[in-house]
Amino acid sequence: MSALDSIAGDAQADFELDAEPLSRAEKRDQQTQRIMEAAKACFVRSGFQGASMHQVCAEAGMSPGALYRYFPSKESIIEAITEADRRHDAEIFAEMDKNPCVVDGFVNAAIAHIRYMHESGNAPLFAEIRAESMRNEAVELHCHNAMGEVQTTFRRYLEAAIERGDIDPVVELDVMLPMIMAIGEGLALNDLPAQGVPIERIEALLRVTVEAMFRPNHPK
Length: 220
Description:
By secondary structure, the chain is mostly helical. It has two domains: 3-72, Arc Repressor Mutant, subunit A (Orthogonal Bundle), CATH 1.10.10; 75-214, Tetracycline Repressor, domain 2, CATH 1.10.357.10. The chain has helices spanning 3-18, 24-50, 53-60, 64-68, 74-94, 102-120, 123-133, 137-164, 173-190, 199-214. The protein is elongated, with a radius of gyration of 21 Å.
């Protein structure tokens, strides 16, 4: 990307951001989202190692100076992407507590996450981030923290259900939770709906699996 293109891109960005009376924070959020979307495209197309910050600049239509005001490195972009997904997951899993049936609450949340991963097209990006986490300590830390928060949410949810006598899991939670996380990660990575597997069939099989693991105490 030439210097002229960079200037033109930055000018276009300023025009877009000034087209509506947005606050400074809103403008910053728009630019941040713009960079994150550009980075996602580059990471999926070239891989985390293959993509450069220069490529992200070109994809976003921004000069390096403008982009580095928001993100100093690719790792910092991954951190922002992971944090955005963490917040979205927290909203989905918060709905579990509103359902009086433990199995329904868990299955509905899982299906909502599967649907989100499919509709957002984030499965290839998620696969790239997980692969990078195996060789990059900074990325691994972001993934570990995000996955750890989800697992903690599940633990609290299931511990409360056990205490109420709603479920009697087939194995202890220290064994079940890593298994649940592994299954969830596999579903996210494989994006079964994109392979032609209907969501309702995934839900049916997931429900049978969850009921077998949780062993709900159905009222007589």
